[in-house]
Amino acid sequence: MPHEISLRDVKDLVGQEIGVSDWITVDQTMINQFGDATLDHQFIHTDPVRAAAESPFGGTIAHGFLTLSLLSVMNFGSLPRIREQTMGLNYGFDKLRFGSPVRTGRRIRGRFTLTEARLRGAGMLMTTYDVTVDIENERKPALTAQWTTIVQFDPKDRPDDW
């Protein structure tokens, strides 16, 4: 996939996997910092000794919302940039599921399949992706979701043949 594409090219990519991110290691420092930022210090995330003794996971696990939040960097690093884009916005998620816990020290990556692209208004493109977050060497994904984003562009760049 090219690093940059034209707005006109987007509709031809519907149905295709258009990005796979690099692996990201989810370590205890990252988990603790996320817990501090969100005020979620549940022991299964932040207390390795207690989590090993009292949880079924054998140690600490990442917050599900930490995994979800990493989609931004996964998206930015793996999806082609749309040349005409002036701004991108999150619109929302559908069918978000946390399938398997991400154990501390594991690596995860995002996979993005474009399932829908439609123009809205004079200068807006709505895109929907089927997103999967893989855990390295595990069968079940950490997360699956449908993610809708908005690409804003100058109306003068709207393709005539869309």
Any descriptors?
162 residues, alpha+beta, Thiol Ester Dehydrase, Chain A, six-stranded antiparallel beta sheet, two-stranded parallel sheet, 22% helix, elongated
Describe the structure.
It is a single chain. This protein is an alpha+beta fold and 162 residues long. The chain has a single domain, classed as Hotdog Thioesterase (Thiol Ester Dehydrase, Chain A), CATH 3.10.129.10. It is 22% helix and 38% strand. It has helices at 28-38, 43-46, 48-54, 64-69, 71-78; strands at residues 4-5, 17-20, 24-25, 81-82, 85-98, 107-120, 124-135, 143-153. Strands 2, 3, 5, 6, 7 and 8 form a six-stranded antiparallel sheet that branches. A two-stranded parallel ribbon has the order 1-4. The model has no long low-confidence stretch (mean pLDDT 96). This is MaoC family dehydratase. Residues 13-129 form the MaoC-like domain. It holds the Pfam family MaoC_dehydratas. InterPro entries: HotDog_dom_sf (IPR029069), MaoC-like_dom (IPR002539), NodN-like (IPR039375).
Topology summary:
Elements: E1 4-5, E2 17-20, E3 24-25, H1 28-38, H2 43-46, H3 48-54, H4 64-69, H5 71-78, E4 81-82, E5 85-98, E6 107-120, E7 124-135, E8 143-153
Domain MaoC-like: 13-129
Pfam families: MaoC_dehydratas
Protein name: MaoC family dehydratase
